[in-house]
Amino acid sequence: MILPSLLQVGLSFLLWLQLLPHTLALKGDSGCNQFICVNVTLQDEWITYEVSNVYEPLGWLALGFGKFMSHSPMVVMWPDKDGEIVRSPRYGWGHEEPSNFMNPRRFPFPVDPVATSWLPQPNSVRMAFNMTANLTALESDPTEDLIWAYSMIRPSGKSPRAYLQGHYRAGRIRVNYAEEVKLPPTGGRPVIAPTPGDNMDSHDHHEPEHPNTDVVEGTDIFGNESVPWGNHEKLIAAHGILVAFGFLVLLPSGSLVARWTRTFTPKWFKAHSIINMTFALPIIVIGWLFGPLAVASHDAPHFVTAHQICGLFMLGLYLLQVWLGRYIHRRRAQGLVPGNKPHPPSNILHVFTGISVIALAFFQVRSGFDEWQTATNRGPLHAWCHDLWLAWVIIVPFAYLAGLSLVPRQFYQERQQIMPGGDINYVALPDGADSPLLNEERQDHDVYEASAGAFRSTRLSMDTVKVEAAPEK
């Protein structure tokens, strides 16, 4: 009895020694973001790709080969109603449904998930396939660019040709096959999965206060800072920097100049106009255009998130504000604003839209912080960005409210028709009044006669008067 037991132990040990080199030979990468986890392992001539969902609900997940959705082969996977995994080879065309790929050069073979898989949460669906590896290409460059996509709407049926609803999120990752696959820590979760009921539109995903740094250490997948920035990240950074500077620095500066200096100098309008239009307009428009370019470079849908829709609305509101300012100034320059109505409705609307644009800009920049993390998978921005935003959201409103203390002085100057910055009173002439200085070139000396104003000729005729002495009594 003892001998067979020892024989079984010995055979098991020899089998373990035989499998050990293959286990140690595994190369690949693993990582997670807010929506999916990806595990890629290279063993001999085969690469195993595995994806699992982090967020619910799960519709379908796709893993493609290339840097862009357009003209890239991919594999789309989803569980059917019986729990079986459907694998569908597709070919991406950009902003269209990927077409069925009948004879792909690298065919995906169904396999079971490997032992080194990350498991983001117990109810995650794990889907895997393997393909032959291009060892020649990996010898010169051990990295591979992949694209991923996540949808919340599951296709109907088991057919690999089933219709696919548009993806909700898509991204790009880079796998490094030069690194050894590390076993995930027991119970480790690379990213805390969002709980059901979180508002997906706001993308308000927050990292835990004490994240498990062992999970992301040693991998360049999903946002390691050692990975160089691509064009997508550069476009997003340029978009964020320019629009934040335009909306949160230039526009508040122009508004504060108007609020604080209009009662002290008549040159306040020129400074206000230069800052809010001459400087801010090109910076804001160019920075805003970088946003759609970044979305297009990532083959993602346009104007579907709260950040994108609010950005479009805010740009239109800002352009309306610029037009209102020009309209008000032109009417005043043409003398079409009565002197007894210094605040017509257009002026009030101008003030309201200006405050609204700046208030929306604070919300938009804050949501852009989360968009950076979601769109680039490089983790949250540095803490100083949040601290600076918080300080600015306090300083700007406080400075504007403090400037309202000058409103009584402004109203007094308008009632008394006092020129800002001086003690000289100015009186607006009635509409249609003539000025004798402007009409001195007339040959008619009766310059005030038949005037539309209150002036009329009071000239008396000078007749000859004969003076006679009084008779004597």
Automatic annotation (TrEMBL):
Q: Where are the transmembrane segments?
A: 236-261, 273-294, 306-328, 348-369, 389-407
> Which residues lie within the region annotated Disordered?
195-215
- Tagged with keyword Mitochondrion: no
Record localization = Membrane
GO CC annotation, single = membrane
Q: A Pfam family matched by this chain, by name? A: CDH-cyt
Which residue intervals are annotated with compositional bias (Basic and acidic residues) in the record?
Answer: 200-212
Which keywords annotate this record? Electron transport, Membrane, Signal, Transmembrane, Transmembrane helix, Transport
Q: Which SUPFAM superfamilies match?
A: CBD9-like
Q: Which Gene3D superfamilies match?
A: 1.20.120.1770, Cellobiose dehydrogenase, cytochrome domain (2.60.40.1210)
Residue ranges constituting the Cytochrome b561 domain according to the UniProt record: 203-407
Q: Which InterPro entries match?
A: Cellobiose_DH-like_cyt, Cyt_b561/ferric_Rdtase_TM
Could you tell me which PROSITE patterns the record lists for this protein? CYTOCHROME_B561
Where does the signal peptide begin and end? 1-25
What is the designated name of this protein?
Cytochrome b561 domain-containing protein
Q: Which organism is it from?
A: Leucocoprinus leucothites
Tell me the organism's taxonomic lineage: Eukaryota, Fungi, Dikarya, Basidiomycota, Agaricomycotina
